[in-house]
Amino acid sequence: MKVQREAGTLVELTTETIESLKESPLFNEDLKPVPISQRTWNVRHFASLWIGMAVCVPTYTLASGLINSGMNWWQAIMTVFLGNAIVLIPMAMIAFAGTKYGIPYPIFCRASFGSRGAHLPALLRAGVACGWFGIQCWIGGQFLNVALTQSFDFWNDLDKQWVYVFDPNKETDRAIAEVSTAYKALLKSKNAVKNLKQEIAKLQAAKGDDLAKKEAELETAINDSMTFQAKFSESKRYVISLGMVFSFLIFWIINVWIGYKGAESIKWMETWGAPILIGIGGILILWAFYVAGGIWELFKATDRPNEFLGGITFVRIFLPSLNGMISFWATLALNIPDFSRYAKSQRDQVLGQVIGLPATMGFYAFVGVCGTLGSIVVFGQAIWDPSELLARFNSPILSIIGGFAIFLATITTNIAANVVAPANAFSNLAPRIISYRIGAIITGIIGFLIQPWKLLSEPSGYIFGWLGTYGSFLGPLAGLYLADYYFIHRQRLNLKDLYIPNTGKYNFRYGINWIAFIAYFLSVIPFILTLKFDLGISGRNIQENSWTIGLVLSFAFYAALMKLNRSSITSKSEYQEITENG
């Protein structure tokens, strides 16, 4: 019986099969294979998707860590570009399954982990995404609050009303009093700086004798202002203003709403947002060239010609840095079928990702380098944080433009990277009850409940370490998927059986493919050992290369162990029997 139809390189369920699956507990309209007629994403859409995701504050600051570790600017850019070019290989290969069969990530997981076992990898990916969703919403809310505070007096008043304290070691009244006192001192110091600048301008015009004295006073006042700024930032760490509450809620609602609208809304947002983000990056580069007096003058500040070339020192810095760049988007390599299922062809998804991912990551790391070097020329110090750079200009117009740019960059990253995967994963938990839209709302609620303001307040950066470690457990999944789809199934899947419980060939035993679980846990053991025991240099090497090591081990373990169970395999002759051409 023909259950699926193949047109070129794309496969869809037949109308009769769809009707027969409508009562299945594993099937709903959001998880079903996308009909070929609705697969409309082309090269431009995939390139725009990646531009929207890649342009974000972490990308802007990527090169800073590499330069601080000893690289020069072009070595840092090269490492960013190369790492993303490498991760693109497994990403595009996993995307092939989504494009060919039109299935989202949780359904793709059923082929290897089983109809019930697929919940584990899907929820692992969802857990990371929910954490980052909340954090990105808080970060986006902060930039929105800065822009609104500098644009509207009433919002500026709201931002001075401290309403919430979450430091358990401080009483509410005392904490609010501290931040209020620090704010008043900061405001007073800023006014002193402003007045001194005006006096100096008058003395310069009149060639007054007190010019040198006033300039010395100005330098002292600026240093005092920076000290008060640091005290204010520290006292504000555990206190939230009313303006920040509203800014976070506005940004959170916008993110949830766009995610709720689904794939077409995301496609629209990424498509029009991409050229704006690229244009803003180009403007920042031109500004840096202008203030430095030219391209080469700008890069002389950090250029270290031939310092590491051919040396073992560079290799020791380069290899762990490269692994870090590979891991940056490694989670998206897993759930890329969530997007590639909408591709018109394999060419569209591959070429779009080739254009959009490594080039954009390299370009915006370059934007970050230029912006920071420009800050050295103008302000006398390297400012890697774009929000701090905006604040230094002390211009409402620039704050609005820059705030909008960061707002757009954060939202395009957050929706695509952190909403789609968990929404589909939650829908897969109970397809008859939870739709994609309900899954998107659940994602937003969890992102709120994790209280990102608390997570980001920790000076140790614990949350980023936790998410980084958590992400390392996702690496072996990529190798397992590659082994399953290309080595075990030979790219031949029975679409109908992916949605049939109990009797389908992907049910395995009680809905779980225990071989996949064994292969996965064997692959993460080396990394777990490095967390539990001090293994010296060997342990550090495993941690620094955890994604690559996990991928290779899981591929090998799964490919070898699956020889014990061939029941899920669709032979070439069986594939021809269930597939009609045309």
- How can the largest sheet be summarized? 3 strands, mixed
Strand content: under 5%
Assign the structural class, choosing from mainly alpha, mainly beta, alpha/beta, alpha+beta, or little secondary structure.
mainly alpha
Q: What's the β-strand tally?
A: 5
Task: Return the average pLDDT rounded to an integer.
Answer: 84
Order of strands in the sheet with most strands: 2-1-5
Distance between the termini: 16 Å
The helicity comes to over 70%
Number of helices: 27
Rg for CA atoms: 27 Å
Outline: elongated
Low-pLDDT parts are 305-309, 459-464
Describe this structure in words.
The chain is mostly helical and 582 residues long. The protein has a domain at 167-237. Helix content is 72%, strand content 3%. The chain has 27 helices and 5 strands. Strands 2-1-5 form a 3-stranded mixed beta sheet. Strands 3-4 form a two-stranded antiparallel sheet. α10 packs across α18 (396-418). The protein is elongated, with a radius of gyration of 27 Å. Mean pLDDT is 84; it is low at 305-309 and 459-464.
Q: What is the topology?
A:
Blueprint (H helix, E strand, L loop, with lengths): L3 E4 L2 E4 L1 H7 L21 H12 L2 H12 L4 H29 L3 H9 L5 H33 L1 H6 L3 E4 L6 H35 L4 H25 L3 E3 H20 L1 H30 L2 H5 L12 H17 L1 H6 L1 H4 L5 H34 L6 H8 L2 H23 L1 H10 L6 H14 L2 H6 L4 H11 L2 H14 L25 H19 L3 H9 L1 H16 L10 H7 E3 L1
Parallel strand pairs: 1-5
Antiparallel strand pairs: 1-2, 3-4
Helix pairs in contact: 2-11, 2-16, 2-18, 3-4, 3-16, 4-13, 4-16, 4-23, 5-6, 6-10, 6-18, 6-19, 6-20, 8-9, 10-18, 10-20, 11-16, 11-18, 17-18, 19-20, 23-26, 24-25, 24-26
